[in-house]
Amino acid sequence: MIRSLFRCSSRLRFRVVDIFAAMVAILTPLILVGPAQARSFQDIMDSGELRVCFAPIHPSVVQAEPEGCREDCRFSGPAFEAVQAFTAFLGDSVTMRALRIDWDEQFFNDQGRTDRDAVYVPALLDSGQCDLYPNNLTKNDWRLQKMDIVTMFTNRMIVLVNAESRQTIQDPSELGGKIAVVETDTSFHTWLQDRNQTTFADEPVDIRLQPTADGLSNLAHGRADFTVIDADAAFWIIRHQFPDLIMAFPVGAMEEVGWGIRKESPEFRQTLQDFFDQQRTGRDSALNATWNRHFGMSLNQFISLLGSMQE
pTM of the predicted model, to two decimals? Predict the structure, then answer.
């Protein structure tokens, strides 16, 4: 049979050994690497490597340098310091492997897009490229269809304005018809979309989707009326970046914020929860030290302060 195939054309003759060698060359890397797949907590511990995917949406969460880096980044900021503490909590046998991703990549399916209505495991978690998203993810329904989010703290959204727009934005009812800048697929984007379908249906907010850094700059320079952002980020922005911006008022309900992991990972979830509980109660814990350094207050002080805020 093989001989009859090779007689079809003298120009296409190959020895069987050549075909076999070519097949081995193609298949060997696949055999050695094996199929990519999501990793259980035991897999993480056995491998000694925690694969952490940072989405540097804003320095109040995490920064990555140089610009455009992917695997060889220098990370800094609250989320990076918190993951360093968590890695130490796991023990000396575990090290962190950090990867920079874009914000919306956290939610991408295997076609490289976010489908808010669909139930699926995001591709980066499902493939095992990422074990953990420590990017202060607010729990909402569409995200919880795709991953588990372990609560670190409660938070609340704040409307930030500049001095000029403060004259016309005194309370939440005055947001309709104004220009807002927010990042795609953030909880702020979702909240504004929901309000445009209800409260502001007759005079919707003009939502302009921009990277957070660009949006804040545009707001500070009067090219937008407001942004919506988490309270911890708002404190950081006014403290370190744009001191002339103004926290106008909180909006929405208190929300749970935490770290994203693959669903059906009970051991991982419990370990993260144990870590957060320990860090919150320890006055001199690594996590409280990080919050004091970046936000001027401990994590528990921040939670208490938000609880006292009235809309």
Answer: 0.80
